[in-house]
Design brief:
There is one protein chain. This protein has 16 helices and 10 strands. By secondary structure, the chain is mostly helical. The protein has a domain of 262 residues: Alpha/alpha barrel (Glycosyltransferase), CATH 1.50.10. Belongs to the glycosyl hydrolase 63 family. One of its GO terms (molecular function) is hydrolase activity, acting on glycosyl bonds.
């Protein structure tokens, strides 16, 4: 397979990796062979990470069940093991809290204490009246589960998938109710994050300003042993000071029994996030489709989706920058960092045309490099920014999940040219470098954990649709 400068996949390399239109029969044949090899790699990765009722993100860094990982994983499993896709979601939602929140980690009780930090003893979820019997964390992640469930049903429709949708539907509705109700701290109709981990983009530059206001000292970490840096280069992970602040934010939330009443006056981190709320709106669209299948009323879901999209545009879109930004509720200001979070509202099918055009312009700018033929993968942060870090977690590297979300948004907004370019870039990363957690935004080299489940799953999904 040919490659561009610095080892990154060039146009011919993309065609060979994915079977794209290179005009060369030999290259097309190689493309078919490599697509088959990529599929086998992805299946082997998912099979290797399967536990008895869920899939771990990786065997090294992440040995438990993670919320939005399981949603992404279910999408890919639906292509190859649909029974596992539904079991994945059932296992996660079996640990849903009584207040509707879906915790971002469900801990495996078979693992020894200290196998992951922060583990169940740190979260101490049992102190919360709404917590389930299972040990979990007390925070959430973006609610992409309803879209994932709908996609899983579409990929492999059956009587079993309809029954699974019927079981999940009230639980997905409760998840939405929790986020639009208890988490609407700003009173604007949007849900807010209480921790950077809830965004999924843990240490994005988008959180630097609100995190700087969190009192913490790196010495706090002396009381704990980080698990991540034992399995990945510290240069690729959040700093100890970042972790000290993460711990401080969890401690503040835990001290209140993970309750959401009165957060505005006492919690150190409160941010309205474009991704969290775009996922919230996309979930309502998916729930409308699910409702139609199981015999419920789709109308209220469509109405709520429209309200969420309107609030997102009103609160988080900046007409000057032409992109979406998180809003810090403590300062009531948009956070200026230009990250991939600002592109995520494209997953909303009812995003107004003006914002669609502006976000596409942002995505296609030198900051992110989206194009019909991409010579470098999509970044998670503005690659022209002075604080762009090509190997540090969420501060520059390319991740398949954010690329996949944008790919689906491009398809929804009828940009097949850009969608095809992004798909080829995603598949070339995996074909050249394996199912890594994330990738170098210039060379495509694999970073973080190898054999990463959502990378495998989303590669399968992208392979299945041109």
């Amino acid at each position: 397979m040919s490659a561009g400068p610095a080892g990154r996949p060039g146009a011919a390399g993309l065609d060979a990796a994915t079977g794209g239109p290179g005009g060369d029969p030999a290259a097309a044949r190689i493309g078919v062979e490599r697509a088959a090899a990529l599929r086998r790699l992805a299946i082997d990765t998912l099979d290797g990470n399967w536990e008895h009722d869920h899939t771990v993100p990786s065997r090294t860094l992440y040995p438990h069940q993670w919320s939005w990982d399981s949603a992404f994983i279910a999408v890919g499993l639906a292509h190859i093991r649909p029974d596992r896709a539904w079991r994945e979601l059932r296992t996660l939602f079996a640990a849903q809290w009584a207040d509707g929140r879906v915790p971002h980690i469900v801990f495996n009780p078979a693992l020894p204490v200290g196998s992951y930090f922060p583990g169940p003893e740190f979260w101490d979820s049992a102190r919360a009246p709404a917590a389930p019997a299972a040990a979990t964390s007390g925070i959430v992640q973006p609610p992409i589960h309803a879209p994932a469930a709908w996609l899983a049903h579409r990929r492999a429709p059956s009587e079993a998938s309809v029954r699974a949708l019927g079981w999940l539907y009230p639980r997905l509705v409760a998840q939405q109710r929790y986020l639009t109700g208890r988490r609407d701290v700003g009173g604007s109709g949007l849900a807010c994050l209480v921790h950077p981990w809830e965004s999924g983009l843990d240490n994005s530059p988008a959180w630097d300003a609100p995190m700087a206001a969190v009192p913490a000292d790196a010495a706090v970490m002396r009381a704990y042993r980080r698990h991540d840096t034992a399995h990945a280069d510290a240069a690729q992970r959040p700093t100890d000071l970042d972790y000290a602040r993460y711990v401080a934010i969890v401690a503040a939330y835990r001290a209140g029994g993970y309750g959401d009443a009165g957060l505005a006056g006492r919690h150190p981190f409160l941010v309205e996030c474009p991704l969290l709320n775009a996922a919230l709106g996309a979930a309502e669209h998916a729930l409308a489709r699910i409702a139609a299948v199981i015999g419920a009323d789709p109308g209220p879901h469509r109405e709520r989706a429209a309200r969420i999209t309107a609030a997102l545009v009103d609160r988080l879109y900046d007409p000057i920058t032409g992109t979406f930004h998180p809003r810090d509720l403590h300062t009531d200001r948009l956070i200026p960092a230009r990250t991939v979070l600002g592109l995520m509202p494209l997953i909303l099918p009812d995003l107004p045309a003006r914002q669609v055009r502006a976000v596409l312009a942002e995505a296609c700018s030198p900051r992110f490099g989206l194009a019909a033929r991409m010579d470098r993968p999509l970044t998670t942060h503005d690659r022209t920014a002075p604080d762009f870090e090509p190997v540090r977690y969420w501060r520059g590297p390319s991740w398949l999940n954010t690329s996949w979300l944008l790919w689906r948004g491009l398809r929804a907004h009828r940009r097949p040219d850009l969608a095809a370019g992004l798909r080829e870039s995603m598949l070339a990363l995996v074909a050249l470098n394996g199912c890594h957690e994330y990738f170098h935004p210039d060379t495509g080299a694999g970073l973080g954990s190898p054999a990463f489940s959502w990378t495998a799953s989303l590669a399968l999904d992208a392979l299945a649709e041109s």
